[in-house]
Amino acid sequence: MKLCRWGRNGFEKPGMIDAQGQLRDLSGVISNIDQETISPRGLSKLRKIRAESLPLVKSNPRFGVPYTGISKFVAIGLNYIDHAKEAGAQIPTEPVIFMKTTTSISGPNDDIVTPKNSTKLDYEAELGIVIGTTARYVSEDKALDHVAGYCVVNDVSERAFQLQSTQWDKGKGCDTFGPIGPWLVTTDEMPDPQTMDIWLDVNGERRQTSNTRNMIFTCAKLVSYCSNFFTLLPGDIITTGTPAGVALGIKDRDAWLKVGDVVNVGIKGLGEQRQKVLPFKF
After folding, report:
1. Which domains does the chain have, with CATH numbers?
2. pLDDT tens-digit map of 128-181
3. Which one of 30, 85, 92, 271 is most buried, by most CB atoms within 10 A?
């Protein structure tokens, strides 16, 4: 299933995408898509619904974050060899974990707002893993049993902030730095998360092209590894790292995001995001 939330910020309705890619209104069945909805029991109920039987949404509404109840926004750094090399970093022998703030979370097509004093605004196309059941000290071979589905994430970054210290959080957690969606695609549609084409454009120029098979640490490894340090709760999301092509790695020209730039991010089967970069405002 492809689940989503649509409408004005703060007033989103639940939705489902049908086989033709059309948005259907799910609000007559459930009031929201939350932790209960994405639990095995909740998803089992929704699988009994034919998307084509739901009312068609004929307008072109805003997509919100596809579900609510994210207690942790976990991020993995340097998880593609080509990105680690372009960043001048050593290839990690264990996953590099940092946290993005929950206040950074935004809808997939919401604007990116340039932070105050920003000089090196960057983008990162990533696959997000959405946890469906509590995971604590889970084995790698059982890890994906705890996953509800997957979504597109743009791990927006301010590199000048990020590289001021060994702790990356302040360069990763600014407002609007965590677009998620447009859809949460459940695991029955994506049984193998290591086969997905991933890409990102800036102003129509292809900057990133890869496939999740090129991850250093697989999705199963990441869920298992993280669960050995903190409990993963339903709704928590792990964004799994980005491939090469970020502005940080482009040495022959100034490739940092500028006001007015448009970023498109996509993963095959999971949909596409579009963000415009706006100037700082408070």
Report:
1. 2-53 (no CATH), 73-278 (3.90.850.10)
2. 999 999 999 999 999 999 999 999 999 999 999 999 988 899 999 999 999 999
3. 271
